[in-house]
Amino acid sequence: MLLKLSCQEKMLKHIFRKHVKPKKQHEIYLLSKTVAELLESSKCSDIIDFGSGQGHLARSLTLGYNCPVITLEQNKNFIKKAEEFDDDACKTLHKANRQADVVGQVTARHVQYNVSTDVAADIFIDTIDKKVQSHVEPTYLLTGLHACGDLSATMIRLYKESPRIAALVSVACCYMKLSTEPESTYIGYPMSLYVKGLDNHKIPYKSRESACHALEDYRCRLKGAGPQLRMHCYRAALGTILRKLHPDMVRLPVQTIKKAFNLSFVEYVALAFKKLKLSAPNEVDVQEAESLLSQWVHVVIYFCLCLMVAPTVESIILLDRMIYLKEHGLNCEIKSLFEPKLSPRCFAIIASKDSQ
Ligand SMILES: C[S@@+](CC[C@H](N)C(=O)[O-])C[C@H]1O[C@@H](n2cnc3c(N)ncnc32)[C@H](O)[C@@H]1O
Fold first, then answer.
1. Are 349 and 322 in contact (CB under 8 A)?
2. pLDDT in tens, 232-261
3. Which of 125, 129, 157, 263 could be disulfide-bonded to 267 (CB atoms 3.0-4.6 Å)?
């Protein structure tokens, strides 16, 4: 039975917002509703949340909808945080319950687990069964909010392979991290025989990476046409310096540098090199790269062209997964769950064996 704890709505809203950025609040609000409804209609007993991070989705599903959830996360620090946040949420609820009607408060079971791309479905289910320890044989609904790269592809495969997994809500991201032919024995893209059989089905790393950028957000930046557009060229010029000094660097491992628009290019370069634990470049190299900044318009045009094909790239990857399921007699739908301006990776693959 779907139990929305409406009597404590206000308190729960507060609990779910704590420690969560507005973008994620939006995603969690909509995804947990979809998952809880599918859990009920598919008659699954338990939810498995793949790549659960700090457990925000699981907290909403357990305390907000009374759903049994087990989370799988490889990062032990995230698990620790998830447990801390759960305790905090329960304490707040407990205080509120002195005045309000008391409703069950069971938090998720957080498990540190690395879902490997080649895990056999029966071994995977066996491991989860042992954690759940139910008297009746559980049936599972798999979900994952921005389960990155191969993790979302593995969820799809496990759903296809195990009769004990009856439903799926997968929101993917980081397509550039997908294993692709012929780089590895495991292949995250393409999954379907149909796409594998197409000439030119390969999607290069750069295109898959572009598919993770936010077209809608960049359109607003273009309209604003402020100094941030020029900043865009910083990274390209930084790349020139890095490649000159370290020709063996194929991809730039530079994380986003926050508030780069407040920095001069020299400061930006110094910070980037520090982050990479590299010794600072000399003045001549920086001055040389600085002259490239005058060409910032070309960088903006290039980026716009990449973004224009990005939705096609994402569609191909998601449709490949849909066709893969179809090839194994399983239907699914691809639904835009979130507001793309707020949350660009907004598509969910939703499936239930009950409705086949
Ligand atoms: C983009 S984050 C999303 C976190 C969380 N779902 C959220 O939305 O806040 C992806 C998470 O998946 C975890 N992850 C990636 N690959 C994994 C794997 N093979 N097994 C378990 N966790 C994994 C990462 O550690 C990370 O916490």
1. yes
2. 788 888 888 888 888 877 666 667 777 777
3. 263
Is the pLDDT assigned to residue 212 strictly greater than 90?
no
Assigned token pair, 133: 């320890």
Cα 255 from Cα 328, distance rounded (Å): 39
Residue 190 preceded by cis peptide, ω within 30:
yes
Give the DSSP per-residue string, 191-237.
Answer: -SHHHHTSTT----HHHHHHTTS-HHHHHHHHHH--HHHHHHHHHHH
User: Which of 107, 53, 59 is closest to 80 using CA atoms?
Assistant: 53
The order of strands in the sheet holding 109-112 is: 109-112, 69-73, 46-50, 140-148, 165-173, 347-352, 333-336
CB of 347 closer than 6 A to ligand 1? no
CATH code at 6-205+312-355: 3.40.50.150
3-class SS of residue 119: coil
Residue 1 — pLDDT band, cuts 50, 70, 90? Answer: very low
Could you tell me the two tokens for 147? 């389960």
CB 117 within 8 A of CB 142: no
ipTM score of complex = 0.99
* Alpha carbons 334 and 351: distance in angstroms, whole number: 9
Q: Is the CB of 31 under 6 A from ligand 1?
A: no
